[in-house]
Amino acid sequence: MDKIINFLDVTIKVGENSISIGGIFYIIGFLIAGIIFIRWSIRYLEQQMSKRKVNPDLAQMLSRTYIVVIIGVLFICSLDILNVPLTAFAFISGAVAIGVGFGAQNIINNFISGWILMWERPIRIGDFLEICDVKGTVESINTRSTRIKRVDGVHMLIPNSYLLENVVTNWTLVDRLTRTTVRVGIAYGSEVKLARELMLQVANEYEHVLKDPAPACFFEDFGDSALIFDLNIWVNAIAERNLKSVRSDLRFRIEELFRENNISIAFPQRDLHIDGSLLVRRE
């Protein structure tokens, strides 16, 4: 036992500071205990916020802030145990700052952009975004990138700085109110007023179509082979697939009512004229 105590009391000199072997084991144990505490406390904090139904964006921002603060406290306490003054890192921090300035601009840019996204909340978890030709739902906003699940199920990681520096269409930024259009072409000679009434009837009967703003049906144009009608409706949609489902249901019902009321849905037609004089000359 005395040998162990003597071994732990052996002092190692590092520069102007000295530390015993026992102190080294103590600081290692302190760091391990600190890491375990951080992991447990983060899990506990997330569970409590989930029980209280805290907004996912606010919960994520609070968790990230807590992690940064608690790691900083752990680092300062470790230096205090080692009797290492913070001024010893002045030169190192200056060198690191220069290195970051030249070699990690994009990382720092994305890191700051991530905090801006979580603080200002122009994009939130669960929002449906349209970025260029990509459409998807935001699943998480991390410190470097944002994870988006596309409508085809593929996950994408988009740098946070890209979301702040480019045009992003957020379908659900203010509310989930979305307008969509069902276009129908009926045959020439059909009763246009009846067709309009039937299309409005379909919209008013469908449970997912909002009554305010009310649906509207417009005689849009005289097409080459059809009379064009546009049925404009408003729905609460959280993704493009919801709009496709709504439009599909409306088309099924419109076709059914048109068939019951003898209104034909038009298809392309072409008139073919044959010059009989050409045939006579060949004979």
Structure description:
This protein has helices at 2-8, 21-51, 56-81, 90-103, 105-120, 160-165, 192-205, 240-260, 276-282; strands at 11-14, 17-20, 128-131, 134-141, 145-150, 155-159, 169-170, 177-186, 216-222, 227-236. The mean pLDDT is 79. The longest helix is centred in the N-terminal third of the chain and has 31 residues, at 21-51. It has 283 residues and is α+β, with helices and mostly antiparallel strands. It is elongated, with a radius of gyration of 34 Å. A hairpin with a 3-residue loop joins β4 (134-141) and β5 (145-150). A 5-stranded antiparallel beta sheet has the order 6-5-4-3-7. It has a 3-stranded antiparallel beta sheet with strand order 8-10-9, covered by helices on one side.
Defining traits:
283 residues, elongated, alpha+beta, 5-stranded antiparallel sheet, 3-stranded antiparallel sheet
Topology of helices and strands:
Layout (H helix, E strand, L loop, with lengths): L1 H7 L2 E4 L2 E4 H31 L4 H26 L8 H14 L1 H16 L7 E4 L2 E8 L3 E6 L4 E5 H6 L3 E2 L6 E10 L5 H14 L10 E7 L4 E10 L3 H21 L15 H7 L1
Antiparallel strand pairs: 1-2, 3-4, 3-7, 4-5, 5-6, 8-10, 9-10
Helix pairs in contact: 2-3, 7-8
Number of strands: 10
Give me the strand/helix succession.
HEEHHHHEEEEHEEHEEHH
Assess the beta-strand content as a share of residues: 15-25%
Global mean pLDDT: 79
**Structural class based on helices, strands and sheet pairing:** alpha+beta
Shape: elongated
Number of helices: 9
Helix content: 40-55%
Task: Measure the end-to-end span.
Answer: 126 Å
The poorly predicted ranges are: none
Major beta sheet, specifics? 5 strands, antiparallel
Radius of gyration: 34 Å
Strand order, biggest sheet?
6-5-4-3-7
